[in-house]
């Protein structure tokens, strides 16, 4: 990504929206920018951009986006009579009209742009192939949810939490958090056998396959991380004697210093298994002197479910809500959350460590 790209420009907001499939009705047209500037940006930074050509939004989304673009461009004041919309934009839009726009929304590539304050870098991409429906294949894990963006931003502002660590992610979903953590570890430089490691886990083989495919996309920095592993992990095993023994063996292999999870408690039935696996992961003896901690980001859809989570986790572990002062520019620059199904709901991040809360 170009270092000189102005992240605060009105045109840049078009790039964010297009890359993350924000409906055109939610986008703002750059009314204070000249025709030539808008036209050049649309052509070179969006339509002909090598990354977006290789990993484009769905054709259905592109159809609506370019229709909206053409309408707005044609309505702009032009200082020069020769100012015309490039025929490549018209031709691209025409090529999309033959695609079926009925039925459920198709899968699509979604791209976010990120950087962290510890790294003097141009913007990096985090690209995912994800479902655009709430549930697909019997799981919600094929779509990226708001809490994953929130926890990713939290870690990008605090890279020391995962750099050089053995990181375990519970419920890895589409792989966004894994891509960001792997990127942080890559730039920190220590990805030796005893240094940075990342284990992505989920109960669904379909989700694990999607996460692995996304993490390994060549456009993502995570694709060159040598120590990313994947494992099936059923939280309910932590509640059963035989399952707990098998799970303990896996955790001893992973040897996690840091446990991460985003949007894990969307149903009260998940609370007890999650609390049990967190307790086990934070307590497993590995011979390492490094302390263990967990950071869990939860979207607050139901206050009663949250209260139940805090009660159950607090019986065996210390759980602290983090009150963050993260003013300033975002480190996950994406328009995706403007249209996400859970955008109106708050996200809270909790730090969980061994030891129960004081009486």
CATH class of the largest domain: Alpha Beta
- Number of extended strands: 10
**Looking at the structure, what is the overall shape?**
elongated
CATH topology of the largest domain: Rossmann fold
Core attributes:
single chain; 359 residues; alpha/beta; 2 domains; 7-stranded mixed beta sheet; 11 helices
Task: Describe the overall structure.
The structure is a single chain. The protein is an alpha/beta fold. It folds into two domains: 10-96, no CATH class; 134-354, 3-Layer(aba) Sandwich (Rossmann fold). It has eleven helices and ten strands. The chain has helices at 10-19, 35-47, 50-54, 59-74, 87-96, 146-156, 176-188, 205-215, 241-254, 271-283, 303-314; strands spanning 108-114, 124-130, 166-170, 197-202, 228-232, 258-262, 293-299, 317-321, 332-333, 347-354. The strands form two sheets. Strands 5-4-3-6-7-10-8 form a seven-stranded mixed sheet, sandwiched between helices. It has a three-stranded antiparallel sheet with strand order 2-1-9. This is S-adenosyl-L-methionine-dependent methyltransferase. GO terms for molecular function: S-adenosylmethionine-dependent methyltransferase activity. InterPro entries: Methyltransf_16 (IPR019410), SAM-dependent_MTases_sf (IPR029063).
Quick structural summary:
This protein has about 350 residues and is α/β, with parallel strands linked by helices. About 35% of the residues lie in helices and about 15% in strands. The longest helix has 16 residues.
